[in-house]
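Sample entry (176 residues):
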Amino acid sequence: MVVFVLCIKGDLDGIGKISINPDANLCLDVKNPLSDYETREKVVLQSSVLIEPPENSREKACHFAIKWEGSKKRSTMVLVDAADKMFKGKKNDGRPRDLDGSVDSGVFVPVAAFECRGVEPTRFRPMEGELVVTSEGGAVFADVDVSEGDFADYDDENDISVSITDFEANLFVFKI
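Predicted structure, serialized as tokens:
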């Protein structure tokens, strides 16, 4: 089992916090770790839906499953909760958390973790609705789209301009 952590960063202005929508569908590119040519682009992992294992299988439910050509069993990916015991007591804490606009501008912050068996995520492809942005004044923007690298809006109630520029996402292996 390998755990990959999705980290995001951007230059933040007027933002109190950024979090992953708990019901979001996450779009990723994945590959077979045993092959250089077996890849799938733009697969969608539904965080609110668990795929049950085949009958008479010792596998557990997962959020994404694929059976690579020539494989006897399926490869799986599970979205790991931040409270999972695998993160407890680690010095290099890869525990997913919200970005804090006052301290995390321009810094990679872990926002999601994936337990992977026989599959590796290679790229995060942001879609509308995956991120929830809260302004410094407390206004919530739920349909944030950073697929072009930027997001901008205005918090009318608190007279604050809200923006994310130079958005980037990377996937890192988390050492267990």
